[in-house]
Amino acid sequence: MNYTKQLILTSLFFFGIAINAQTSENPWAIAVGADLINLQGDNVESGLNFGAPALSLSRYISSGLSVGIQYGLGSASDNIDLDYSYLDGVVKFNLSEENVVPYLFAGYGLSRFADGKEKEGAFPSGESGRTTFGGIGVNIPIGDQLNVNISTSYRGTSETPDSYNHLQHIIGLSYNFGAGDADGDGVSDKKDECPDIPGLKEFNGCPDTDGDGIPDTKDRCPEEAGSEELQGCPDADGDGVADIDDACPNKAGSVEMKGCPDSDGDGVADNIDRCPEVAGDEANAGCPWADSDGDGVPDKDDSCPDVAGTIENSGCPADPTDLINFSNNGDNRILFKASSSKLDAGDKKTLDKLVGLLGQYETASIIIEGHASSDGSKSYNQKLSEQRAASVKAYLLEKGIANDRLSTIGYGESKPIGNNSTAKGRADNRRVNINRSANVKIN
To answer: pLDDT by residue (tens digit) across 359-384?
Structure first.
């Protein structure tokens, strides 16, 4: 089989294997094996010749590149037996750093073919020739650092008549060692999760700066001892919120309030609440809105901010419907005897109903109108009508109705509701008729 066919088949074999070997994790590699030599040339008749040992030492540099030296002994034949040896410098390039590692290599050195006769010439003798070579190989792992090594190369040594171009095949074992430990923490870079920072073995080479049992790589607060629940951060106030996230790290609060308390329970954290002791509105920085009339409707929403009203009526007083109805029917009449302003039990019962209505509508004010018949002089009747209105007011004051809600007026005989020419009409005008004697109106 000629060289070209052998190289193609060998390449297909190696590239058909899945891919790992000497890497930055184990930069040094020493190999020992056996070689097979096949001399090349038109005037050469040679089969495969076995030799041993084949030794090499190499050092990984970076990016798949390694450099090293190799030395080997063997035998070859070209009608006569030849002792074969070589010493080379080698450059190797890993095609991968996975499991099985194919590689390319090339180098320069010396190859010697000795037939037992002394020959003079260049170092070390005329039997040696300077050699350039290149080839392909593969490292197949059989342990963490031990590999089976297979390679093939073409070596050109046409410098002297007694040297030969030849194919060299090597099979052996290589051992990768000297695992890197860049940070010197005793954990190899291969297993070190923090290869550039000295750490602890129990944390795969990562440090635990604060000594809280959580490696810095998983510790949100690597400079302060904390708990595993809070990812290595402390919690000074013990509220379950890590100090790093706690807006009030020295006051126990809640997660919802970012670690701050809410003393007044208004949903606004104390640290941003302008009125932390009084429940308020978030829109007003935690303070209650002003309510001048105290009716429960804030001034900003109160259509009648200075008068107490109802929420349903937008802060304004509700219409005193019942009081209006009272003033518009016969229930509002208090009738008096002739020349009298004294209230009887029936009058007081009617006025008690009025007191209840005034209590229901606390903002309502009334005018109490007094009237008289035409008996007597006009001045007398005027004074009598004023006394009758005053008598009603006095009773209402006695029942707790505020003075500023009561107004009185006397009309004398100027507004009759009955005919003063008859006894009945005069009786109605003297307020003997409850519907007419005292007229109560809403102000």
So the answer is: 888 777 888 888 888 888 999 999 99
User: What's the sign of the alpha-carbon dihedral 290, 295, 297, 302?
Assistant: negative
Tokens of 374: 């035409």
Handedness of CA 264, 265, 268, 269 (dihedral sign): positive
Q: For residues 438 and 358, what is the distance between their CA atoms, to the nearest angstrom?
A: 17
- Determine the Cα–Cα distance for residues 83 and 77; give it in Å rounded to an integer: 9
Using only the alpha carbons of the chain, give its radius of gyration.
Answer: 59
Q: Please say whether the beta carbons of 195 and 189 come within 8 A.
A: yes
Q: Summarize pLDDT for 2-23 with one digit per residue, the tens.
A: 444 443 333 333 333 333 345 6
The CATH topology of domain 3-177 is: Porin (2.40.160)
Residue 192 Cα distances to 45, 96, 154, 203, 215, angstroms: 55, 21, 40, 9, 13
User: Cα–Cα distance between 101 and 150 in angstroms, integer?
Assistant: 11
Q: Does domain 321-442 have CATH number 3.20.20.30?
A: no
User: 399: which residues sit within 8 A by CB, 6+ positions away?
Assistant: 351, 352, 355
User: Does 321-442 match 3-177 at the fold level?
Assistant: no
What does the domain layout of the chain look like in residue ranges?
3-177, 321-442
What is the Cβ-side half-sphere exposure of residue 418, based on CA atoms within 13 angstroms? 22
